[in-house]
Design a protein that fits this description.
Helix content: 40-55%
Radius of gyration: 18 Å
Structural class: alpha+beta
Strand content: 15-25%
CATH topology of the largest domain: L-fuculose-1-phosphate Aldolase
Number of domains: 2
Order of helices and strands: HEEEEHEHHEHEEHHHH
Number of helices: 9
Length: 239
């Protein structure tokens, strides 16, 4: 017998929680993961290590104009679910929200600095866009109208995506690029890409259906995921 959509979603959420813990991007009870479940949401519970989250420990959450509440599950939902809800309301294409504290990216967040004000590598522009802003939680909905990843001031990182893989890969790439930027600091800092190259890469991002504008353009389309490497090469090809 095949698993129900809810059971499959629960396994995917648990798997992402375990991944975050295994990478050292959460500790203690840090971080949280949620996903759309029809008109409701399935979320990791509060006060549980991500290493210990299993399908049976997840909570089902309903939301309305008055707020949100647990409608199924034995545990409580994390207090930051309001941030996840803001993401879902801002972006109909977003089905997954991931919050974690990867050390390099979080170091930039607690310093109140973005490492991506001026993009310095090609592929992350296509995957993440040209902006990863440092924001307060109240600014999340507005920020997600422009980008897919944010640094929460004095807090950590939020990434969003249409599926678990995309949200995970975006978190992975944010941390990777943040580490490169940090390692470049004592060497004189990164050297930004030319503005014209960034424009080409953003056009490739939209063409791939990535980001807020690309998702809107590809609404209703289906097919294989784009080859980001090929799009980067195309965008930066010199004639």
């Amino acid at each position: 017998m095949s698993a129900s959509p809810r059971d499959s979603l629960a396994l995917a959420i648990s798997g992402l929680c375990h991944y975050l813990h295994a990478r050292g991007w959460v500790a203690n009870h840090d971080g949280n993961v949620s996903a759309r479940l029809g008109e409701r949401f399935l979320a990791s519970p509060t006060a549980v290590s991500k290493a210990d989250v299993g399908p049976e420990s997840l909570v089902e959450v309903a939301a309305d104009a008055e707020g949100f509440r647990v409608v199924a599950g034995e545990r409580k939902v994390f207090s930051e679910f309001s941030l996840h809800l803001a993401a879902y309301r801002a972006r109909p294409d977003v089905n997954w929200v991931c919050h974690a504290h990867p050390p390099y990216a979080t170091a930039w967040a607690v310093a109140g600095r973005s490492f991506w004000d001026e993009p310095f590598m090609g592929e992350p522009v296509v995957s993440l866009g040209a902006e990863i802003p440092v924001i307060d939680g109240s600014q999340l909905g507005d920020a997600l109208g422009r980008c897919d990843a944010v640094l929460l001031r004095n807090h950590g990182v939020i990434t969003v995506g249409p599926d678990a893989e995309t949200a995970r890969l975006r978190m992975e790439l944010v941390e990777h690029v943040a580490r490169i930027a940090a390692l470049a600091e004592p060497l004189g800092g990164v050297r930004p890409l030319p503005a014209g190259d960034v424009e080409k890469l953003l056009a490739a991002r939209s063409k791939a259906g990535l980001g807020p504008s690309g998702a809107a353009a590809r609404a209703g389309e289906s097919g294989p995921k784009p080859d980001v490497g090929s799009l980067v090469a195309e965008a930066l090809r010199r004639f």
